[in-house]
Amino acid sequence: MNNKPVILVVEDDKPIRKLITTTLETQGYKYLTAHTGEASILETLSRAPDLMILDLGLPDIDGVEIIRKIRTWSNLPIIVVSARSEDRDKIEALDAGADDYLTKPFSVEELLARLRVSLRRIRNDSTKLLSDSSIYTNGSLKIDYSAGCVWLSGEEVHLTPSEYKILCLLAKNSGKVLTYNYMINEIWGSHSYDIPALRVFMATLRKKIEKTSSQNKFIQTHIGVGYRMLQLSEE
């Protein structure tokens, strides 16, 4: 992207809306605002923003319902900023299709960091469409989807079928928080496996790809919610 992306801020609380838009402005981002759920959907349809920052507690439509509506026709990255701090609220929003979840009160530094992660994912997705989409690289990790092989620092890593499916799912959604239930449904497509089983497979996968080096921490745990593949530097 040559131009700065356009961020749609959906927030009915004026002081918080002002805090977010001022923060975006100081960083050179372009932004739009919406005070209601209805307005947010209209802005998304008519102005095609690059990313949405969404409060769940809007006066007309619940934020989770907005996410569901938008996901029927768009993959617009959505970062939820909400006072709802329970795991069940985070899981509901993420399962509906949100990309990230930030709990109020929040620091502007954290908001900007989450914003950069989501925008980087957009760039990476665009780059993958132009390059060989069968190869995924992230720091020292490399996945060849067509061959079904994984390498770490040039050395092949032998994974079980379930470990490989978990790794591929996280890689294809790099930078996005995936809930336990979403991962179980995507990987196994049934209720044959549960969250404890997922954690066991995740532990063995991490042992193989993360070793003991702090340089190779690819997977981040969101306790009570799920997992995220971190995007490491090319170095």
Automatic annotation (TrEMBL):
Ranges for domain OmpR/PhoB-type: 133-231
InterPro entries, alphabetized: CheY-like_superfamily, OmpR/PhoB-type_DNA-bd, Sig_transdc_resp-reg_C-effctor, Sig_transdc_resp-reg_receiver, WalR-like, WH-like_DNA-bd_sf
SUPFAM superfamilies, alphabetized: C-terminal effector domain of the bipartite response regulators, CheY-like
Presence of keyword Transcription regulation: yes
Alphabetic keyword roster: DNA-binding, Phosphoprotein, Transcription, Transcription regulation, Two-component regulatory system
PANTHER family: KDP OPERON TRANSCRIPTIONAL REGULATORY PROTEIN KDPE (PTHR48111:SF50), REGULATOR OF RPOS (PTHR48111)
Protein name as annotated: DNA-binding response regulator
Species of provenance: Paenibacillus physcomitrellae
Higher taxonomy: Bacteria, Bacillati, Bacillota, Bacilli, Bacillales
